[in-house]
Amino acid sequence: MEQMIRWLLALGMLLFGFVVIGQAGPRNYSITPPRVSYSDDLAHAIVSFEVGNRGAAGAAATEIVITQHENGQSSYIEELPPLAQGETRDFDICLPLANLPGEDVFFRITAGIDEYELAGSRIARDNEQLFRINKAEAIAGSGVCAGSSAAPTGPFSLTIPLLGWQVVFLGDSIAVNDSQLDYGTALLAFLALLAALAFCLWLLSLALRLLFRQPPKFDAWQPPYAHNNWYDMNSTLGRRQSWQYHAQNNLLGEATAPDQLVLVKHLLGKQKEVMGNWRVKAMRSIQYDIYGRISRTEVLMPRGVIEKLNRLLQRAPTQDEATRRKAIEALAKRISRVTLSPIEKQNLPLPIALEIRFESQSGEARILFELYQHRGEDWQLLDAWEPDLGQTGARIPEQFNFTLNGQLPGEAAREYKSRLQTDVAALLLRMLTQLPAGAASLDLA
């Protein structure tokens, strides 16, 4: 599982690698979007901009170059003296309008593209800008007036600083930095980028679920009781050892036959307190029929349910009855809702097994078995004992198994869901408060 997580994270980082911003060199010039105005005689376009240095001090002079975007023909070159660290310098460059056509003409202006900031590198992406000049608009007086700002990068432009992209929407194409794409190709590229981003987000969410949202494991349970072969099976110790594996929980149910025998087990603390020092490790529900368990209905309770049940185990002995009942009812509502989530309507009449896995530190908890027989109208205690434990290590595992009735004949689905919540609440309340009748015989030493 850890290898799979590492592989997914590595693949996600590889796909996101194109957004990593490279390290800046010692000198880092940048140019602001140009502002275009026109002279009073409409003979020149005045291009105004600022060049700043966001890195270390420049060591040598470089150039400001203006070229036509379509054909790369040079229109203007001016020397750019070295700038100190944090220095900004204003420039106003005049371009003649006489030889320009009447429609839009796009120009590219670069500042400081040299051996320190190589063309096409990440550090040089803020060293160039696009702007347009429209001779017809200037002559007609409907364009940009002198001293006002024009759209610096065409009819519509978009800058993506994280990727270092400058997107200009032209008449029949889109210019992305030095590349020019038609609208069909640009749409396919945009959809591919969205698909890659969605895939990366899915990988990230999968990795997070694997790391932080794993439900508690419910491995095969082995009883912690020691099995001593030297006991005579007809002796008291031998019969106790055989009975131990039949105990399901700490609750006495209704008798189904005369003189019925039932064995229960109580999980106690060192001082005989109910559920003292025991903590819930996992919990699940699953339907069953005459053929066995129905695996597709198995539900592992989420960590939130486990944590709330553990808090209830800690606080129940000190809470008053009303507070304890309110907390149990809220927890039972969530357990019943999670239990019924995978069950189809036609399977509602099947009973549900509810299993709770406990764990406690060795030496801090006790297990007490009680053997009852139904005599007359009540249960009579026949025997009570603590089991011999095997080699469990530092922690003792235990498990309670409960059975919840399914939908009863004539009971509506809504009534069954409400009744199941009530049954779960009653079960939890009895489990937390059921005192063993044989606890008085336990040695506290």
Explain what the structure shows.
The chain has 445 residues and is an alpha+beta fold. It is elongated. It is 25% helix and 31% strand. It has helices at residues 2-15, 135-140, 183-212, 236-243, 303-315, 321-340, 413-433; strands at 29-31, 35-38, 44-53, 62-68, 74-80, 88-96, 104-111, 128-134, 156-160, 165-169, 173-176, 179-182, 261-269, 279-289, 292-293, 299-300, 352-361, 365-375, 378-385, 395-404. A hairpin with a 5-residue loop joins strand 2 and strand 3.
Question: Strands, helices and their partners?
Answer:
Blueprint: H1 2-15, E1 29-31, E2 35-38, E3 44-53, E4 62-68, E5 74-80, E6 88-96, E7 104-111, E8 128-134, H2 135-140, E9 156-160, E10 165-169, E11 173-176, E12 179-182, H3 183-212, H4 236-243, E13 261-269, E14 279-289, E15 292-293, E16 299-300, H5 303-315, H6 321-340, E17 352-361, E18 365-375, E19 378-385, E20 395-404, H7 413-433
Antiparallel strand pairs: 1-3, 2-3, 3-6, 4-5, 4-7, 7-8, 9-10, 10-11, 11-12, 13-18, 14-15, 14-16, 14-17, 17-20, 18-19
Helix pairs in contact: 1-3, 5-6, 6-7
